[in-house]
Design goal:
It comes from Pliocardia sp. A3710_17_S18. By secondary structure, the chain is an all-alpha fold. The protein contains 20 helices and 2 strands.
Length: 452
């Protein structure tokens, strides 16, 4: 845990000195090194340090993500949160972000189902407040309520099944339930679908995704980055832990969920090509990537499960970076429309370079973490059924098309006469991308950290 503490300290120093030139760069560099060292030292044995805290490599990876993403969001939120701003609104926003981070870290370290469920649902409250108070449009109330309705209604069956299992086993401990594996008749029938429904809504998969684009569009930058980088991973981690504890096997119902998820990911890729709002486009791309990660976990192959976790981790760094870049476009053109926000390459070539790098990483270009995780997920799915090749091929095609569309439409062309661009963008947007870019492009050197 010493490596994690050093990472927290170096991240704090990096945030406190964002404009101090060499000193700030050194702090950022050391933070990245500490994170890589932490990844090398992860243990893949499940450890319980007390009756309610337990962790393994997956838990620590997700906790690392919780350290990175909120820091990126606070640094990027130039107009929402400033170190020199002492207003109550600015302080409140920082406190809400810290609360979300704390709740999510505790969630990833829980070792029993009831505490796990409590923090799984409690994470919605500060997120709802973040959207409601710092959102930009009047529709933010509708977006927040829709998010609560989807996630709470989807999680009620999860609570019922947890109580039933607790009543039968007289424990809600992950480790004790895993030692009792093979005695769970609940999870050989449709009841397993009810239990994982809460996780599927939080991911989300297609058909239960209606809350995600609205929440992203109405949320402030910090809310969008935390939502994409952390909160979506709560569902993926919960599904992984559910499969790990109960040692589930493939069934017709789970195969049906995988089919819906993959074809839904294909449809989400198509939706990306029809979006006129940058944030909505990036939000729909998350649905497509989460569908592939879900397929890797539900393939029940160890390689597929670890590739799914790797994909969640990579997406948790890539998607917030894209939202940060989208916010920089909004600061420049005062519009998120792909029809109005053009010509960044002419004015800010350095921003254009980062746009290109993050778009190709989102495509899964080698040697990024996205590439290796997607390849292993696809391999596990095709090994499970050759018919999965059809949606996977089209998902790859549409992902490449909408990523190139996103890059070209924002960076090339002539700025619309309807907007009055601002010719001074804050460099803090670029500072926030340093971690994600270095880890995503250099993480292939540490792929063993994602394998049992």
């Amino acid at each position: 845990m010493g490596g994690i503490m050093s990472t927290v300290i170096s991240c704090f120093v990096s945030y406190c000195v964002p404009n101090s030139g060499i000193l700030g760069s050194v702090a950022w560099g050391f933070s990245g090194v500490f994170i890589m060292l932490d990844l090398i030292g992860l243990s893949w044995f499940y450890c319980m340090s007390s009756g309610w805290i337990g962790f393994d490599g997956v838990s620590l990876l997700m906790a690392m993500l919780v350290i990175l993403v909120p820091m990126m969001s606070l640094i990027s939120s130039v107009s929402d949160y400033k170190l020199s701003d002492s207003t109550d609104s600015s302080k409140d926003m920082g406190e809400v972000v810290y609360m979300i981070s704390l709740v999510c870290i505790i969630f990833f370290l829980m070792s029993n189902w009831m505490d796990f469920y409590f923090f799984f649902e409690f994470s919605l409250l500060p997120t709802f407040w973040l959207i409601l108070k710092w959102g930009f449009q009047p529709e933010r109330l509708q977006a927040g309520v829709l998010m609560l309705m989807y996630t709470v209604c989807g999680s009620l069956p999860l609570l019922i099944i947890i109580l039933l299992v607790w009543n039968e086993s007289f424990t809600d401990s992950f480790l004790l339930m895993k030692l009792m594996s093979g005695n769970w008749e609940y999870f050989q029938s449709w009841t397993c679908v009810l239990m994982i429904l809460g996780f599927l809504v939080k991911l989300p998969i297609y058909l239960v995704h209606g809350w995600l684009p609205k929440a992203h569009v109405e949320a402030p930058l910090s809310g969008s980055m935390i939502l994409a980088g952390i909160l979506l991973k709560l569902g993926g981690y919960g599904l992984f832990r559910f499969v790990w504890v109960f040692e589930m096997k493939m069934s017709g119902m789970l195969m049906f969920i995988m089919v819906i998820s993959l074809w839904g990911g294909l449809m989400s890729g198509l939706y990306c090509l029809t979006q006129s709002d940058l944030k909505a486009l990036i939000a729909y791309s998350s649905i497509s990537h989460m569908a592939l990660g879900l397929g890797g976990i539900l393939s029940f192959y160890e390689c597929g499960k670890m590739a799914g976790i790797c994909l969640f981790f990579a997406h948790g760094l890539c998607s917030p970076a894209l939202f940060s870049l989208a916010a920089s476009v909004y600061d420049w053109s005062h519009s998120r429309s792909v029809l109005l926000s053009k010509g960044i390459l002419r004015v800010f070539p350095l921003f254009s370079v980062f746009w290109f790098l993050m778009c190709i990483i989102n495509m899964g270009i080698p040697p990024s973490l996205n590439f290796f995780s997607e390849i292993f997920c696809m391999g596990s799915l095709v090994y499970l059924s050759i018919f999965f090749m059809i949606p996977l091929v089209f998902m790859c095609l549409f992902t490449g098309v909408y990523c190139m569309f996103l890059y070209s439409v924002v960076n090339h062309g002539i700025c619309s006469e309807m907007v009055k661009p601002m010719f001074n963008l804050s460099e803090r947007y670029l500072y926030s991308l340093v971690y994600s870019l270095s880890i995503l492009m250099g993480g292939f050197l540490f792929l063993s950290c994602f394998m049992m």
